[in-house]
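> forwarded from #structure-qc
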């Protein structure tokens, strides 16, 4: 058991795989377990979950700095991005990063029959090339290696921007009210249950956002839109919501407001401090990200033998540092990689 930022985590030593699956606080885990217990005893009714859905939406809104009326609740990033991909005009030119996570790029590529084109470019080139496109869709921190996009450059480009914060929200403090769309998943850095995701829609971007999954819970009043026509969707971003995955929302209702209440500058300093310290130990330059990607002969085996929990992505060992990571984790990784240090070829 570890204690960090005022909460307890039942996390194993050297768990550096938050970029794949975040470990919840014991408070979040207990809330979900209690909900499972109520389910097993037949004690709940569907309206009971309206409050967790509301609290989770508010938590996401607070984390990205937007009014809650802009936020829709869904189940996955790709499902929410599809609302945008289906809503863009025929012939829209979309720019993405090379190696972008496909939940961001595939929904647009699937619109090729309408003349929508998707072009991939190096991450660093996106702000410069953005004015030649109608929309930029990109993860704030790249899944494979944690590289962070130039947000100021994108904002200044004048092109519509969709940001995926699944690998950044929870450790990188950013106010994103300027972005046309912001989407993120619950189960990584937000330390909640898979099955929750959120989409923020700037009012000026609603013309390119289509409620392709229109359903009763997207209604103006969900408990009066369960039957019959006409279509009567919510007047705000809830029109793009899915009916909730109940247990996922219970966890998110605890995790997201708690994270939003933390000093996220301190969280960033903690996470990035450990990641950059690892790079320094390996003789590599700092990158300012909570995610480190290490390539080299024998790296995967050395980390596995040392009991380091991480992931292999794009041929590199991806290590991700979060609230519950500490100096002992860093020491173990450094020791594990000592024998492979001479064969480490890159960190990006």
């Amino acid at each position: 058991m570890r204690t960090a930022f005022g909460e307890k985590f039942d996390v194993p030593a050297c768990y550096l795989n938050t970029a794949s699956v975040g470990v919840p606080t014991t408070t979040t885990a207990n809330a979900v377990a209690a909900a499972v217990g109520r389910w097993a005893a037949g004690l709940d009714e569907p309206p009971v979950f309206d409050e967790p859905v509301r609290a989770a939406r508010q938590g996401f809104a607070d984390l990205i700095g937007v009014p809650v009326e802009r936020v829709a609740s869904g189940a996955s990033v790709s499902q929410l991005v599809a609302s945008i991909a289906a809503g863009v005009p025929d012939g829209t030119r979309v720019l993405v990063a090379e190696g972008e996570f496909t939940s961001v790029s595939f929904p647009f590529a699937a619109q090729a029959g309408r003349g929508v084109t998707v072009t991939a470019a190096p991450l660093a080139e996106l702000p410069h090339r953005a004015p030649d496109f109608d929309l930029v869709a990109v993860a704030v921190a790249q899944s494979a290696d944690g590289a962070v996009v130039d947000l100021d450059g994108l904002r200044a480009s004048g092109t519509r921007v969709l940001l995926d914060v699944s690998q950044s929200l929870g450790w990188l403090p950013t106010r994103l009210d300027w972005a046309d769309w912001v989407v993120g998943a619950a189960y990584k850095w937000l330390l909640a249950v898979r099955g929750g995701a959120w989409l923020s829609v700037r009012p000026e971007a609603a013309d390119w956002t289509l409620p392709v999954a229109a359903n009763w819970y997207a209604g103006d009043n969900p408990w009066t839109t369960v039957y019959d026509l006409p279509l009567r969707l919510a007047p705000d971003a809830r029109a793009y919501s899915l009916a909730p995955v109940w247990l996922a929302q219970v966890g998110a209702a605890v995790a997201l407001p708690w994270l939003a209440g933390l000093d996220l500058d301190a969280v960033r300093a903690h996470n990035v401090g450990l990641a950059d310290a690892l790079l320094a130990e390996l003789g590599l330059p700092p990158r300012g990200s909570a995610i480190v990607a290490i390539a080299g002969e024998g790296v995967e085996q050395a980390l596995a033998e040392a009991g380091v929990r991480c992931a292999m992505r794009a041929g590199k060992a991806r290590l991700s540092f979060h609230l519950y990571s500490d100096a002992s984790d860093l020491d173990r990784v450094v020791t594990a990689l000592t024998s492979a240090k001479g064969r480490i070829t890159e960190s990006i």
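QC bot note: The longest helix spans residues 264-281. The two ends are 32 Å apart (CA to CA).
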